[in-house]
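Dear Dr. H.,

I hope your travels went smoothly. While you were away I took the liberty of generating a structure for the chain from your last submission, since the lab meeting agenda had it listed for discussion. I wanted you to have the full record in hand beforehand rather than looking at slides cold. The sequence, exactly as received, is reproduced here:
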Amino acid sequence: MERRGRGALQIAIVVETVALVELSQASIRYPVNALRNVALAEARTDLVLLLDVDFILSSSASRNFSLDSRLQQMYRSCCLNKEILVLPAFQARSCETALASAQADKFEVVKLFEDGTIEQFAKREFDKGHRATNYERWKQARSEYALQYEEGFEPFVVAARALIPWYNPIFRGYGRNKVIHIFHCAAFGMAFYALADAWVIHSPHEPSAAFKATFGKGEEREIKLFENIMSLYNESKSEILASPAAASAAYGLHVAPGWWRRRDLLGGWMGMEGKEVPKTLRGTTDLVQRRFLRNLHEHKFSFRQPKLRRILHLESGSVYGQDVGPTLCTTLTADRLSRLLLQVRYF
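The corresponding predicted structure, in token form, is as follows:
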């Protein structure tokens, strides 16, 4: 996109000071959601693309994101109608297949999907994560179509920077960190629509240390880590259902000073307050239960609010052909630079 004069690469390098006894846990409990908040705060465009660093954007999406008419349509959907645009996510068995699928047209991708060369991302491990995208409908779709949110949904999306809630920064490492964020979006009453002409595909890699600690086998797995993450997830649900706007404001306060650049409108948008909470979003608000959950993760977690410090900010240029975007917001640890190079190459 830089070659077309429509963007610039920004990299914020941040560090977190941890106690010596925590060093062995650093790769397991890296502050993933706090880093996502930094990326959101650094974005300058109206639209943001929230995408993990190990996914490649389809060439069709990259082309469409460069068309002013398409961007204006996305702006109306996200910024005026408070919609979230979902990119169907696929996975392949090899990096070569992933790259080919990203550069193929939709007809070819549908054929690869039907013959099993690629498949819905994480279908076997966590079907609910992307099931609501409705891949069978996507195969035939020629335009955006509405999706029915279900709890567990964690798609990769284009959204309005000023309306998307902040991520809950207390989530670290692997597990439920994106699920709770999309739950938060649904609690605000945001509508989900699938893009018919764009997709992302996972570039295969070895499981991370955080994944192994959460879902691994034998000595790799940390006892009760997933159970503790779920207690944190349930507590966060209660906070969000009590007041989506207040929860987002609280999460945003932990973004380091000087990074609060976005025009945040959530404080004036009451979301679900005064309305009946949808059945799919109902959770416990019982005070005793909430105190129990809070005590549980205070005693069992080494999760805590991250305190990040920016040590370097790199920007390759200052050319912005338009203010709409979308800005690709992604985060990574130092050992994943090769994934970033692959991702930005095709954006």
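Two observations you may find useful: The first strand starts at residue 10 and ends at 16. Residues 256-284, 292-302, 318-322 have pLDDT under 50 and may be disordered.

With kind regards,
E. W.
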